[in-house]
TrEMBL record:
Signal peptide: none
Pfam families named in the record: Lactamase_B (PF00753)
Residue span, Metallo-beta-lactamase domain: 19-228
Highest taxon of the lineage: Bacteria
Organism name: Streptomyces longisporus
Protein name: MBL fold metallo-hydrolase
Length: 248
């Protein structure tokens, strides 16, 4: 299965993997990779780098929105094979090391199996490595506050709730928000289209996830690149507030 690579702005590509998105930011010969999909998405991940004229050796850093398996899948592979640093919010670093796990449990999935889309999503998750053990041996906290000295100059924005250390990435010069799972536009287990929170079972603390939508609503931007679902064009503020209204 080929990854769906879409250029959404100059030097910015949103990639739809098997069930999760990642983002490629390019600047000259260097790349910033935001998230890495499932373990089973690795072939698609490497192909997406090639599709934008890059290679894994060109990735200056991997930025992880949060340490769920569908976003962390190939982070350790890139770190071990190419020496690529893997950066997360400081509260998410131990999560990436798997000192604890803030992820939907088998029991929660079973209790929600009656909901439309949950069983097919579960089967896909198992096949894609969603239950694999994919810790990052040496994850690092973001090296500085404010814009990171990486292609795209992304600014980490702490948006807790989905996990304690979830971070979105704001590209103010481009008017882009990479929202991870703090703000989605679709999911295999959701019947809603457009800006939304993921279904409740996926959030470690749902109330904090709802509150983090106000953090995103304060950011300027006209282009939303979510961890799940298609690109959304329009004011980020309106998208975040629409998701909050749907969540309340």
């Amino acid at each position: 299965m080929q990854a769906d690579v879409r250029q959404v702005a100059d030097g910015i590509h949103l990639v739809h993997g098997s069930n999760t998105n990642w983002v490629i930011l390019t600047e000259g010969d260097e790349i910033t990779l935001v998230d890495t999909g499932y373990l089973g998405d690795r072939e698609q991940l490497l192909a997406s780098l090639e599709a934008v004229g890059g290679a894994p050796e060109a990735v200056a850093a991997v930025l992880i929105t949060h340490a769920h398996n569908d976003h962390l899948g190939s982070a350790e592979y890139l770190r071990c094979t190419y020496g690529t640093p893997v950066y997360l919010h400081e509260a998410e670093v131990p999560h990436a090391r798997r000192e604890f796990l803030q992820q939907v449990t088998v029991g929660q999935v079973v209790r929600n199996s009656w909901r439309p889309g949950v069983l097919p999503w579960s089967v896909h998750t198992l096949r894609a490595g969603g239950m694999a053990h994919v810790p990052v041996a040496a994850p690092e906290p973001f090296p500085a506050a404010g814009p990171l000295d990486l292609p795209g100059r992304p600014v980490p924005v702490h948006t807790p709730g989905h996990t304690d250390g979830h971070a979105a990435f704001h590209l103010p010069d481009s008017g882009v928000l990479i929202s991870g799972d703090a703000l989605a536009t679709g999911h295999a287990t959701s019947r809603i289209q457009g800006p939304q929170l993921l279904p409740d079972m996926f959030h470690h603390e749902r109330a904090r996830a709802v509150a983090s939508l106000d953090i995103l609503a304060a950011l300027d931007g006209e282009l939303l690149l979510p961890g799940h679902g298609p690109v959304h064009r329009g004011p980020v503020r309106e998208a975040a507030l629409q998701a909050k209204e749907r969540a309340l």
